[in-house]
Write a structure and sequence with these properties.
The structure is a homodimer. Chain A is an alpha/beta fold. Helix content of chain A is about 35%, strand content about 30%. In chain A, helix 1 (about 15-25) crosses helix 12, helix 5 packs parallel to helix 10 (about 200-215) and helix 7 packs across helix 8 (about 175-185). The interface between A and B is large, with 57 and 57 residues.
Amino acid sequence: MDGVIKVGFFGCGNVGGGVYRLMNGFAKEIAHRTGLRFEVKKVLVRDVNKKRDVELPQEVLTSNVNDLLEDEEISIILEFLGGEEPAYSYLLAALQHGKTVVTANKVAFALHWHELQKAAKESGAGLYYEAAVCGAIPIIHTIEDSLQANRIDRLYGIVNGTTNYILTRMSKEGEEYADVLKDAQRLGLAEPDPASDVEGLDAAYKLSILASLAFHGRVPFENVYVEGITGVQAEDIRCGQELGYTLKLLAIAKREGLKVETRVHPTFIRDDHPMANINGAFNAVYLNGHACGEMMFMGRGAGDLPTASAIVSDLIRAASAPKHCYPTFENDLYPTVSLENNTDWRCSFYVRMLAQDQPGVLSSVAKTFADHNVSIAAMQQKGEVKNGRVTLVFITHAAYEKEMQAAVKEITPDVATVESLLRVEED
Amino acid sequence: MDGVIKVGFFGCGNVGGGVYRLMNGFAKEIAHRTGLRFEVKKVLVRDVNKKRDVELPQEVLTSNVNDLLEDEEISIILEFLGGEEPAYSYLLAALQHGKTVVTANKVAFALHWHELQKAAKESGAGLYYEAAVCGAIPIIHTIEDSLQANRIDRLYGIVNGTTNYILTRMSKEGEEYADVLKDAQRLGLAEPDPASDVEGLDAAYKLSILASLAFHGRVPFENVYVEGITGVQAEDIRCGQELGYTLKLLAIAKREGLKVETRVHPTFIRDDHPMANINGAFNAVYLNGHACGEMMFMGRGAGDLPTASAIVSDLIRAASAPKHCYPTFENDLYPTVSLENNTDWRCSFYVRMLAQDQPGVLSSVAKTFADHNVSIAAMQQKGEVKNGRVTLVFITHAAYEKEMQAAVKEITPDVATVESLLRVEED
């Protein structure tokens, strides 16, 4: 056929199969809307003889990456290998060969953005990565393009479906973390090795990408503070609910003046915050820009077709673009923007402790807090006295993380033992 | 200055002032990110001597549209006049003069899209209208571009802030429509003449634009069924709440096979639907695509800076585009897509009636419904018997609008009088 754009796939698992089906099933509409026709010419796989769900012609399969890199007809590569290597090396080689890349690979991208963008610029190839963050939600393009007249000062993301599913179940059914995780694994909603999700790494990769775009300053993955949900207890979710809060694994990015902070951790937000209603495997990003004000974008963050929606839209964009664009960062414009590791920040806190049931205990705790500039916004006693001890739950006003940590360390067992310390975002 | 892009304004009220402030206040960032510099060369106003909030140099003001049309240095026109005329004639003339247009004008656009796009294509000018629908929310570009690999089959919009504010207040405080409207007018949240908002016309203009893009088939404004909120009673909101529903003025567009339906009316949705939590003056669009699945976009639908966020992003896009794109409709591809006036559709219904308190009444009502293929999903008696009559509230399963209307007409006063009939979307 004349004018057909030849593309190659790196990998063809679940997402690759979805992309192949969407490209074929929607080819007529794509051609009518955009005038573009695509053909998948070669697909790099580990084992060309493996049985696959998707009906690929046998002759397009190859296990040799050079079959794609050296095929001059292939102008665009779609990558679904995932993980850092060999994906990164292959992507870099593709860009160096002048091939435009569309990728869903958050890890390779978050870790090697600089090198990939440099290679793309040098060869004039395009680099498209909408699907790397939040699946079907077009958050990358929205920040880069539709909100480009904004100075974004904060961004909250629920960017990992597995942890949001687990926390939603814990919140609605009062179950403990370990039980829900097992169930999620049984249902295929959590990986057999769930570490990257439940320890917050997956969210941190995505936050590094989102924060870099939102603040127009590269925020390396290493600069994101990460804490997962493995230590979350059902009792804290319940105590928070009684105070009007919902617990979410939030990816938080803030820029105040020239200081940037990025952190991923379990966070209490108010029940009436729009993000509190993002449940199950859904993802969402909430942000505030100086012109647009508060916005929220919600959708499916994973799955073959939702991810394919972002990839095929990127593919059409890449194939239609008269020239490719790359984000510009402001680190040059404002070189004083701090992108150092952030280990301190201000937020409110939730503290649960088992306190001695005797006079003076509350005043002792309050004094320890006050010594570290932590002031108490609310306090509740939970349940009955047991073995001479009683559960107290505090919500503080905004305080510095380091001061709060220091205060908690100073509370001695003869007064109380701190059972949980969780962060609260009141915005 | 070299390489400065000269733009003209049609109008300079609230939104125009916001755009001027954003263009100036953010000029350094825009230049760094995109390499573009803009200068507002001429501003068309009715009275050049009127005192304005925004500090425009006196020499840029003119009351003669030809001063802009015939200025060959001006390549882009931003339009803030609003309404059909003279805005439409001016926009058309600008496009015919080869000037790219960025507009926030939903009325001129919904009514004359075809002519505007034709003029733009003929002269090669660009036509950008992100701000015409939902203020800061980039819903136009998202549907056109980021979700272009999708067949969208339904879309729900809360696209009018005034009515959403009124319904939110009625829902939260139990107040009646007329009282909240008065208050909203006092607070500047409703116009002195609120007809276009409260009667649903504003929402219908926007729905005509959104449905055309979502379904890739022009849906004229005249084809949108419109019913506003002027008849909404606090009692129905309360009865709906007791059954787990929230009342919203929804702009609804559905495409099933080749049939398109578009309607604006007060609609009950389930409390746990993401749209049920869009409160106050916020706007939101919820949609479902065959690949992306369910998505929701929330943000500020009005106001000077939120609207300016969309306009200035469009301006940057227009100035950077190597060539301008126009949406392609599928009416040609699938000429059988029905875009006729839709006067019938299927949905669930909420019916409140005052029924005689005597045996056989419920069976009589149920029989009348059944005769018209309406089946009852839930029924509740509300409150005590008064003057021998009792309030009954029904929720039906999905039924045809025309059959439901016919059933209601057949219920005679000796059985019951129907006080309210509202539509319910269960999706």
